[in-house]
Every structure is written in C-alpha cells, then in structure tokens.
Phosphoglucosamine mutase (Flavobacterium pokkalii), 464 residues
Amino acid sequence: MTLIKSISGIRGTIGGKVGDNLTPVDAVKFASAYGTWLKNTKGQDAKNLKVVVGRDARISGPMIHNLVVNTLVGLGIDVIDLGLSTTPTVEVAVPLESADGGIILTASHNPKQWNALKLLNDKGEFLNGVEGEKILAIAEAEAFEFSDVDNLGEVIENDAYMDIHIDEVLNLSLVDVEAVKAAKFKVVVDGVNSSGGVIIPKLLEVMGVEVVKLYCEPNGHFPHNPEPLKEHLTDICELVVEEKADFGIVVDPDVDRLAFISDDGEMFGEEYTLVAVADYVLSKTPGNAVSNMSSSRALRDVTLAHCGSYEASAVGEVNVVELMKKNNAVIGGEGNGGIIYPESHYGRDSLVGVALFLTHLANKKMSVSALRASYPEYYMSKNKIELTPQIDVDAILIAMTEKYKNEDITTIDGVKIDFANEWVHLRKSNTEPIIRIYTEAPLQSQADALALRIIDEIKAIAGI
C-alpha cells in the first residue's frame, strides 16, 4: 500500500500502518500542517480563519472528512462544510465565501482504495511549490499548536454549492442556454457513482438536455476503473449507440476531468475535449491558449487558426495556470480532459467544459462525430522505461538533448523534442527510476514507431 506526499497534498490508500498509508493519523497530521501553515501565513490576522471543505463520494470520504474538519476546528479554524461536492465546486466556493483556503477530499481518478487531501489557497487555486514545501516541513516537524476550549472553530454546513456552481456556469457569457434547449440534445452520463453523477445531470437538465443516467448513484462503488480512458468505458460507448444519443459524457470522481463519447459510440478523445472547447472560446473571444507539454499539438493548430498564440507549460495544473496568467490566455487546460476557463475560475472544471461544448455543438448544428472529424488528426503513444537505481536519469536526458540539439528543444520539464510533424516528451519520475516517453504524430503507427526509436536510443545510452 502507498502514501505519497507532494507539494499538492497527500494521497494514499486507506488502512495499514501510520506513515505507510493514508491512515486517520496521517489525515489528522496533514490537515494540522495545512491549518498551521494558514495561521503562520496570516500572522496577526490569524483570527477567524475560514476553510472550505468538500469531498467526492468515495467510501472512505465521510471518515476522512470528519477527521479533517474536526482537526481544523481544533486549530481554531472555522469550516464551511460543503459535504458531497466536486473539486471545481470547492474552488468556486473559496472566493465566494471569502475563505482563507480550501481542502478537497478526493483521489481524483485513482481507484476506490485511495483518498487524498488536495489543498487550495484563498483564491481557490492549488498551492505552488514553495507553499507546498512549507506544509510538508510543518508536517514532518509536527509543529502544531491547537486552540483552547474557548477558541475552537465552528462548522457551518452549506449543501447549496452544487446549485450555486451550476448557476455560476450558466451565467458565463459564452454559455447559451436557449440555443442548447432549442437543439433538444439527448446525452448519456457516466458519473462513476460519485458526485459527478449528481451535478452533471442537474446541469444538463437545467439546460434542457434529455439525460440518460449510467452509474450516477453517489455511493463510492466505482463500477469500472474511474480514470476516463477508452478501455474503461465500454458500457457508455454501447449505451450511447443503443439510446441513439447525441453523445456521452464521462467525468472522473471529483469532476475535474471530462471525456466525450461521439454519437457513433467512439471516443471523442480526452485530448480533444480541450481542443473543441478552445475552438469555440477562441472563435468568440480571440486570444491565447495554454496547455501542458504532454498535451496534443491539435490545440496549437486550432489556436493559430484563430490567430492566437499558443504556449506549453510544465506538466501540472499549477504550472498551466501560472502560464495562462502570464500570457493572458482566454482558455487553457490539460490534455487529460481538464478545461480551465479564466472567466469562471483558474481550475479544471467539467461543468464549464460541458456547458461550453453544448453551446458549441448547438451553434455548429453538426453531429459530435462530424465535429471531431473537423479537427487536426493526431495520435499519441504513452510508454515508460524502468531503469535500475544506479542509472543516472538526468545524464540520459542531457544526452538526448545533445543528440537532438538541432531540433526544437524545450527543457522546462524533462526534454521535449518537436520535429516537423511529430514530437516526443521525456520526463523522469520523481519517485522511481523511470523515464516516461510520450509521443504524438499524424498516424498511430508513426507515434508508436517514434516511441520505439527513442526507447532504443535511451537504452543504448544507458547501456541496457
């Protein structure tokens, strides 16, 4: 079993030994570190601190939720308790509540054995590396000081935020509810038995969409691997065709990743979720776009077609957001189906993605499969090489950079080599001797061939 501590939070499997898994002790320890960091950051203004807390529908959610909420109360911090919620809903709630931070209890796309504490700042955005390191240091030192009985925090329950979040989305300037209602769409929703099974159908129904629900009971018993990849989505692909639906919607347990199923039962492609939404946004509000370095080149192509500029950040949502702010990007996100639309907030949000996609489709008056066919065609190959601990991974990446020095090279996050018609991104794991190899090309055979060539070159350099 596993416990992973990082700058973005703590993630692990439930049960087992303290320090090796996400046990109750570890949950309390890390919540204490976050609350202590908030108090240290506010200094003299540390009185009346507020933190928004929400969770997905995981089986372990109520247990971890109670531990985290009461730990914050013990630190003298008030808690706005959203109960069952989504990651983007908590992100939206933090600034609306004028809160000092937020905690989302979810392990995102990980299986049911996992849970996690994801940490937000007072803008409802993920913490940066410096902030995360401070929290890890506080946790390691167990430098906590709890409040006396007269200064404990209070819990304010507020279960209205899913509806508030929906209202926020419907009020976005590029969301046209009347156009969507007129289109009379029929959509199948796979909510993987988590909070997406509640909030996505509710959003669709308000927009006049006929909803067919699949796995929308928020009981935490995931009916399939919750990562929205093709091999996990056989049931919804079949149901879209069977129901003669216009398309299907799949979200992960905390509703920050969004995938579509075309009307023919084929995957629209997680990479193309962002491409389609960006196409619509850029057609209405010309500007710039950002994704991470491992995302499809199709976003660059669409952005350039709308006379905008495109840049790629290091992998990680916080890095995408930082570059979006720097470049005044009007749309951005990650190729895993994460839509970041600054007019709403700087966080991946499937509700925003669904509403913008529906409006785009209503305006285009074409099928989802035809829309997908209208975009540049690229295929990806994702591989990894496991190396022995004795092999210097950094030296291998330096050698590959030198080998391809005459190509377009980016080294802000591993090594990305852009060729004329294809690219490869090499990244090392922070926790094990692994190099991840992502490639993309106009044909799957070309992406696979490039990956195999690079793997052989790396093995030759490593002498294996």
User: Anything to note?
Assistant: The domain at 3-159 is CATH 3.40.120.10 (Alpha-D-Glucose-1,6-Bisphosphate; Chain A, domain 3).
